[in-house]
Amino acid sequence: MQSGAVAEEGTRLAKTLSWPHLIALGVGAIVGTGIYTLTGVGADRAGPAVIVAFAIAGAVCACAALAYAEVATLMPTAGGAYTYTYIAIGERLAWIVGWSLILEYSLACSTVAVGWSAYLVGWLQSAGIELPAALLNGPHAGGIVNLPAVLVALVIAGMLIMGTRESATFNILLVVIKLTALACFVALALPAFNGENLQPFMPYGFTSHVEGGEVRGVMAAAAIVFFAFYGFDAVATSAEEAKNPGRDLKIGIIGSMAVCTLIYMLVAISAVASVNHTELAASAEPLAYVLRTLNHPFAAWAIGLAALIALPSVILVMMYGQSRIFFVMARDGLLPRRLSAVSSRTGTPVLITAVTGVFVAAAAGLFRLDEIAELANAGTLLAFVTTAASMMVLRRTAPELPRVFRCPAPMLIGTLAILGCAYLFFSLPALTIQRFLLWNAIGFAIYLALQAFRQNRVAAASDAGG
Questions:
Q1: Transmembrane ranges (predicted)?
Q2: pTM, whole model, 2 decimals?
Q3: What is the CATH number of the domain that holds 203?
Q4: Residues of the chain by 3-state class (helix, strand, coil), percent to 5
Q5: CB-based contacts of 19, cutoff 8 Å, min separation 6
Q6: Do the domain assignments include residue 169?
Q7: Domain assignment of residue 14, yes or no
Q8: Rounded CA gap, 346 and 162, in Å?
Q9: Where residue 164 falls among pLDDT bands split at 50, 70, 90?
Q10: Helix axis angle, 374-397 to 81-88, nearest 10°
Q11: Which of 20, 24, 123, 76 is nearest to 245 (CA)?
């Protein structure tokens, strides 16, 4: 095993995280923009059956989580799906996975930063404070830069540079705020349950199809609300920093998935059963809309405040995951090796974290992300497929390796994860799939160019030595 399995001195990450930190990292990544906004988008695509869409997406993620738990405890090194693919299948596919994970972590991170900026601007406007429009929008909207989105991304990057444990501990506080807000939503909305709002339950059918110019169906909704579930894989990228990876990783990955699936089911049924799904679909802030409709204005205000306070935890975890992917790719030599240097004081990869922060801040500040946000789902689905495949391959090629956590019925669970992710992938809009393939074609061309450069350097060194 090469990728991250043996780290040179000076490129090892400090072991500072225990299982409460890892569960909080997982919940911090999973519970965020998705549940606060995608309930309405899912209702638009599936009607009241958005509840089923959440269940399907959760089931697919649960199978992937079991595969992640086995390979993460088998290979407790940073890098997540990239590292597993590198070891089990090979460098070329690992590069594609690492390249695709840029879509998952960076685009999701930038999208949340832009969403946080919108919440902040709304709050300032409600207080009578108006900021220059040129500093609140990128060039696509006639502005210069979305400054709040840039600033929040850079601040989070600074926190990660200060130290992983400090960032993870702060993240626990943000997770508590988010879960408290969602618990209050369920407590206020569920008593208003009205069975008539669930009829017809599946107005657009089950399979993904185009209806009225829009993609509809339960599976189309599942392909979108899948965004609300992923993030638990960020826990796997922290494997090298876990104090007791054999115990802590399986608790962190499976525990965060179980907690979030339960939360999402309760929130979804509370929302679609208390107001008509067409009204829910028309709102950009569906949870706050439900509470205002039920005459709970203060609770709606508090939900918005909780989102404003707690959404940075999603940025923190996603940026953390992206920086660790880049870190391991650099340590493997697929990116410049100097990017894998670790601070002797904090035990964190300072340079690569700073590069990641600048990249995310630039995307959040300058680009329109709404049309490409689904690319994040495509990248994540590929990572889940290759992780499940890696688990199955290693069961065949290296059955003697000690496994702290063994996935039950690995061939069945792995196959279900692959088939489920593939079905969700092909339920995405055709344009999203085309953009994903183009992104990876560009990435593979870069890989071939880097390979040629490396080979030329080795040849030159050999000639000089001869």
A1: 19-38, 50-69, 144-163, 170-193, 213-232, 253-278, 298-321, 347-369, 375-395, 407-426, 432-450
A2: 0.75
A3: 1.20.1740.10
A4: 75, 0, 25
A5: 244, 247, 248, 251, 252, 255
A6: yes
A7: no
A8: 6
A9: low
A10: 40
A11: 76
